[in-house]
Specification:
Elements lengths: L2 H8 L1 E9 L2 E10 L2 E8 L1 H32 L6
């Protein structure tokens, strides 16, 4: 079943596709009585936001791990002689 046929059967169809290397598009196909409406946008900005969020989370994890080590060392729970 194609994207238009699925939209006709269910009223709407959401798909992502890569027409060429390095290009990804998210699109929505909506059916109405006389035809279809297709809207789409590039996923480049969304993928860049996800990459930034992953970097922020990784840095936050590293900072919290270091802070935990410092607090454990300061409390004497680690590195006892």
């Amino acid at each position: 079943m194609g994207a238009l046929q699925a939209a006709g059967a269910y009223g709407e169809n959401r798909v992502t596709w890569a027409p060429e290397d390095g290009v990804r598009i998210a699109s929505v196909v909506a059916a109405y009585d006389e035809g279809y409406v297709v809207a789409g946008r590039s996923l480049r900005e969304v993928e860049a936001r996800v990459a930034r969020l992953n970097m922020i989370l990784l840095m936050g994890w590293g900072v919290s791990l270091a802070a935990s080590l410092v607090l454990a060392w300061a409390s004497g729970a680690v590195f006892k002689e």
